[in-house]
Design a protein that fits this description.
mainly alpha, two-stranded antiparallel ribbon
Length: 208
């Protein structure tokens, strides 16, 4: 996620946007548990029973990682901030949006599409990120190479990172840039897993 923080770290909050998962530990609301396999989450933080007319039941709260493991959380913030250094902000958001699509992380997807809009990204391009191969003309060759690499690394268990995907990325980025692109992909995949594991709710951006 592009997450910024208010957790008394030395991280530059203008660049570490992905740290928003629970950045202000004194005010962040505890995340609620994920809905059951057949349940649905209601607007009031309840879980439906799944069947028609099923009674809603309260959701159990999950831990706040920033509060429960602050040293780990600060390390993630620092890693995220370092990863994005020197990268085009528009590219940063495209990478984070695509990984969040693939990981089904609604919390991060909501956050990063909003960040992209605030940075001047067009609605046309935002709508095309999920189908960028079918809308190649919306993206530069460099952006397409980064999106393909993002998909390969995010879905690494499926087929690894193919040589042609890596070679295309290496042709568009120098070694330093490529290292940062890879690190950013690692970071957003981690943030996606933090958000999903702690049941963060889309639309409740906790950054301060």
């Amino acid at each position: 996620m592009v997450m910024t923080t208010n957790t008394n770290t030395a991280t530059d909050t203008s660049t570490a946007t992905d740290t928003a998962i629970t950045t202000d530990t004194s005010t962040a609301t505890a995340a609620t548990a994920a809905a059951g396999a057949a349940g649905t989450v209601g607007a009031a933080g309840t879980v439906g029973a799944g069947g028609a007319g099923g009674a809603a039941v309260p959701r159990a709260a999950r831990l706040d990682l920033a509060k429960s493991a602050p040293k780990v959380f600060r390390a993630l913030i620092g890693f995220d901030a370092a990863a994005r250094e020197g990268l085009d902000p528009a590219l940063v958001e495209l990478i984070q949006i695509r990984a969040s699509h693939l990981n089904h992380c609604a919390y991060c997807l909501h956050m990063h599409t909003n960040d992209a809009r605030k940075a001047g990204e067009s609605e046309n391009r935002l709508h095309m990120v999920a189908v960028w191969r079918e809308a190649r003309h919306f993206f530069t060759p460099k952006e397409r190479a980064a999106l393909a690499l993002t998909e390969a690394v995010t879905l690494v268990a499926d087929a690894g990172v193919p040589d042609d995907v890596y070679a295309d990325a290496a042709a568009h980025f120098d070694d330093r840039e490529l290292g940062h692109v890879l690190a950013l992909i690692f970071a957003i995949n981690t943030w996606n897993r933090v958000a999903l594991s702690t049941a963060k709710v889309a639309g409740t951006d906790e950054r301060r």
